[in-house]
Amino acid sequence: MNSIRGLAAAAEAPVAPGVTLADIRAAAERIRGAILRTPTIENPAVSREAGTRVFLKLDNLQPTGAFKERGAANRLALLTARERAAGVIAMSAGNHAQAVARHAQLAGVAATIVMPKFTPATKVVRTESWGARVVLHGETLAEAAAHAHDLALREGLVFVHPYDDPGVIAGQGTMVLEMIEDAPQIEALVIPIGGGGLCSGVAAAMAELRPGMPVFGVEVEGYPAMAQRLAGQPVRVGGPTIAEGIAVRDVGETPLAILRRLGVEVLLVPERAVEHAIALLAEGAKVVAEGAGATGLAAVLTYPERFAGRSVGTTVCGGNIDPRILANVLLRNLLRDGRILRVHLDIPDRPGVLADIATRVAAAGGNVIEVSHQRLFAAPSVQSAELELMIEVRDAAQGNAIIAALEAADYVVRRG
Q: What span, in angstroms and rounded, lies between the C-alpha atoms of 168 and 146?
């Protein structure tokens, strides 16, 4: 876990290149009514876990489930009459696709969305449901993007970039105007970074609205592209991540210039911290977040020394997480917290043993939720069997008490 700081901000009051507070305020007026003005809340469970006051901007409540609607709505509102007649095109395998499709439909503009062939069918269907023409092309995001640019040239379409566009950046920056209005006590902001559109929009607004207030960007450790670019390092990214929404190699040049000029620091968080943040939001705040949407909170939890004594604002910028992934994250978190106990026992293969173990677990207050009983291949002897139990417990202390009760009856217990 570490952080990489961008170049120091200029001594004078900074003004971000390409995007100003006036641009962002104009965008807010332009998209008023087209996007949902989402709430900013403080949740006691989240603040208690973080050790400081944490305010959550719930942009996962947007109709398409993510903040991308802001930038898409503003960019489409800026189209000329000729561009509106021509139509727009975008490339995305996720939230940007649905955002452009929705706001094109609302504006009466024809939209084409190029998606890689590996895009899950559910995302294709959702994008088509907003009236867009979906073109599946390429085995990678880069191939899909190249095809989208080619189609834009051949068909005279306006390409709507997901983050490297001043109109999109200004639209994303409208989020922070609402945050500060609803929670003026916020003293620091923590914003996820993929291509950089959201964080650069927020940083540009705050540089003029509240000069000196720290704005931190956040990336996962496997995809620190913005941090590496800010530090002048070669970009090396890769590997599986639950925060696929911000797992990018190529960041936007305009966002990069904004973050560099404003001296924004980028914090890196591990996968486990993102999983913990997703679980805390679900259990503590009753908020569903995708991996990218939970990275801001993950940074607050990972770097408590940075935020001690400060009221911190962060955004749940997306909630489009696969239900199976969410279920797995919650179960993994229960295991790590000691609220699910997994044990292995080598037991005599005779009647009544399994019932005796279950009775002892129940007497100690545990709830057996899964049993695996192997006689033939896993057991060390033909006279024995291997038993694996998943037991629901209140906490680690109760789990230890259950193991002690089993060991007191001469069972040999191994934690799973």
A: 20
Q: What is the pLDDT of residues 17-32, one digit of tens each?
A: 679 999 999 999 999 9
> Of residues 375 and 66, which shows the higher confidence score?
66
* Tens-place pLDDT, residues 230-274: 999 999 999 999 999 999 999 999 999 999 999 999 999 999 999
Start-end of H helices in 66-216? 68-77, 81-86, 95-107, 121-129, 141-155, 166-182, 197-209
Q: Is the separation of the CB atoms in 66 and 99 below 8 Å?
A: yes
Who has greater pLDDT, 332 or 416? Answer: 332
- What letters, b where the CB count within 10 A reaches 16 and e where it falls short, cover 73-92? bbbbbbbeeeebebbbbbbb
What DSSP letter does each residue of 86-115 carry, written as one string? H-EEEE-SSHHHHHHHHHHHHHT--EEEEE
Task: Classify residue 135 by burial, with Cβ atoms within 10 Å: 0-12, 13-18, 19+.
Answer: middle
3-state secondary structure of 411: coil
- β-strands 215-220, 265-269: how paired? parallel
Tell me the two tokens of residue 283. 């259990």
Q: Is 132 exposed, middle or buried (0-12, 13-18, 19+ CB in 10 A)?
A: buried
Average pLDDT, the chain: 92
* Percent helix, percent strand, percent coil in the chain, to nearest 5: 45, 20, 35
pTM of the shown model = 0.88
**For the purposes of burial, counting CB atoms within 10 Å of the CB of 141, is it exposed (0-12), middle (13-18) or buried (19 or more)?**
buried
Tokens of residue 371, six digits: 């049993």
